[in-house]
Amino acid sequence: MRTIKRMHILAGMTLMLIGCLSAYSQENPKLSDPEVASVAVVANQIDISYAEIAMKRSKNKDVLEFAQRMLTDHKAVIEQAVALVTKLSVTPKDNAVSQSLLEGAKETKKMLQKASKKKFDQVYIDNEVAYHEAVIEAIKNLLIPESENSELKELLTNVLPALEAHLEHAKMVQKKVSKY
Amino acid sequence: MKKRLLVPGFLVLFVFMGMGYTALNKTPEPKTHIVEIKKLKFIPAELTVKKGDTVIWINKDFFPHDVTEEKKGAWSSSTLQKGESWKKVITESSDYLCNLHKVMKGKLIVM
Ligand SMILES: [Cu+2]
To answer: Name one Pfam family in it (chain A) (predicted).
Structure first.
């Protein structure tokens, strides 16, 4: 019962995120490159912040290994993004999409902090599956179409296979965790 | 007349035998193959080699990867950062993966 409730909350949040991003893209189809860069950096920072909580709270080897991977890989993406905007002399610009991502992340972090010790791994990994699905959608349907600079587009395109690998990895861990 | 032909005839025969002899005993030089790690894939994902050939893996991604034998972890490169490479002499067929991104898989087939 609790699991079902939790899954509904997560599914709801994912839909909200996707809904929010796509509604925004329809209302306001012009997301400038500095804004795209900001969304990309924020989306990566958020997953790093979730991983940091997991590194503190989890005792599960598979979860810790996954969280460590998220820290390393999402930091690598941010480094690439920073290198690119520096090269292009662009400053990432805060915008409604970045803000809505951060708002959503605030709630999720609360949820991760509040989850019982016993449930933490499940809550964390369920959120990782949902979050990666949402971010993959957002990159494909919003950020890539919105970016004008070809190198920015290329960077986003190159990040997709990593996010897809993370999603599959998260699903593998999810299967193991739900057995405990 | 006959004798004069016989000597060069033998010479030619010896030369041919010599060539045949070296050709039979010369094992082909081991080859070096390259597998690129790019966009979270091993390219080519499946590679056929001869026993004793060398395979070099090069990480072209900005994510770290490794190359690890899949079934028992019998061999593994250490973590390869962007631009780093690792080589191994291949003696048997094996399935391998990136232990950091376990969905990245590759296969070596020894003929
Ligand atoms: Cu990898």
So the answer is: DUF4142
